[in-house]
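TICKET: design request
STATUS: open
ATTACHED STRUCTURE:
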């Protein structure tokens, strides 16, 4: 039995050490090992609910996540959290937020928290997150919460992965509503005004409600016939968390009624495209081969000014279509 096969058997049996080891193998990025893990665990997944939590830095995403985990546990659900942290551009290391943020859940066998380094991935999610979410799904968790790095306007990848996407905002941050212009609000299934006990919360809620009424918040949810809900919370006191949990349930029922397979299909398509693009990049940058030689010939032609780079790219890919 291979090492991955042995880890798989232990994972299914509920071994936390095996789970941590498999996640490490996924994050380390060895393509062959990743492929083996995904191939083995994919048939065992598909049951967990994926909840994405995103928003600009400082809005209290971690507090919302922690309170949400507490609420889910009170309902008897097993919860895993993937917290994607900022990583150093020099070392790739990350501030491992699970050691800071989730102390309230330490020792709870029904909660598993894992931090992953973003490693420069601009969409707010680490490149290995889809595979890690698959592992947690196969491990039998009812909910997998994806908390993103908090890079603001480019933090939209979470919507492509999550069943329900929560966008957290807070009063007193000048860029909160401005982010709507760049797309961060457009991914919301549920909008949460956190820290709603602070000055300016009412104004922020009014601005967001106006955007909803005018149709300015129009993301993936609208294509499912869903209008984003707007809630207020004070996560550090668990205020509004029951309403947030109900909103997640309500959205899940709405998506199921409209046909959840559409989202699953889009999620699978996106993952395939990203994996295929990565494999193509590896081939083009790898050892000698037909496609690599073709790339070198085209690069020479661009240098000689006999063709332009856009034409070269078209010629490189025309055999793939």
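STATUS: resolved
RESOLUTION: sequence designed for all positions
ATTACHED SEQUENCE:
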């Amino acid at each position: 039995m291979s090492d991955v096969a042995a880890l798989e058997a232990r994972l299914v049996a509920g071994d936390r050490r095996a789970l941590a080891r498999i996640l490490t193998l996924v994050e380390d990025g060895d393509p062959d090992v990743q492929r083996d893990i995904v191939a083995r665990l994919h048939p065992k997944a598909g049951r967990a609910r994926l909840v994405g939590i995103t928003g600009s830095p400082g809005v209290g995403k971690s507090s919302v996540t922690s309170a949400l985990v507490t609420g889910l546990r009170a309902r008897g659900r097993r919860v895993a959290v993937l917290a994607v942290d900022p990583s150093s551009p020099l070392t790739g290391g990350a501030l491992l937020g699970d050691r800071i943020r989730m102390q309230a859940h330490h020792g709870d066998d029904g909660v598993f928290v894992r931090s992953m380094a973003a490693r420069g991935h601009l969409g707010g999610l680490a490149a290995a997150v889809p595979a890690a979410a698959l592992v947690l799904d196969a491990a039998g968790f009812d909910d997998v919460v994806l908390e993103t790095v908090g890079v603001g306007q480019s933090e939209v990848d979470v919507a492509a992965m999550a069943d329900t996407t929560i966008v957290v905002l807070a009063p007193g941050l000048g860029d909160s509503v401005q982010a709507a212009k760049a797309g961060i609000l457009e991914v919301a299934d549920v909008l949460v005004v956190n820290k709603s006990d602070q000055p300016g919360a009412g104004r922020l809620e009014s601005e967001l409600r106006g955007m909803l009424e005018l149709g300015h918040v129009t993301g993936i949810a609208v294509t499912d016939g869903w209008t984003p809900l707007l809630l207020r919370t004070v996560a550090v006191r668990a205020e509004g968390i029951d309403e947030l949990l109900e909103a997640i349930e309500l959205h899940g029922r709405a998506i199921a009624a409209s046909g959840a397979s559409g989202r699953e299909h889009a999620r699978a398509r996106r993952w395939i495209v990203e994996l295929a693009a990565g494999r193509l990049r590896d081939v083009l940058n790898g050892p000698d081969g037909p496609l690599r030689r073709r790339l070198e010939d085209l690069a020479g032609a661009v240098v000689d000014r006999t063709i332009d780079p856009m034409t070269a790219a078209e010629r490189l890919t025309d055999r793939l279509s």
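CLOSING REMARK: The chain has a mean pLDDT of 82. Residues 261-285 form the longest helix (25 residues).
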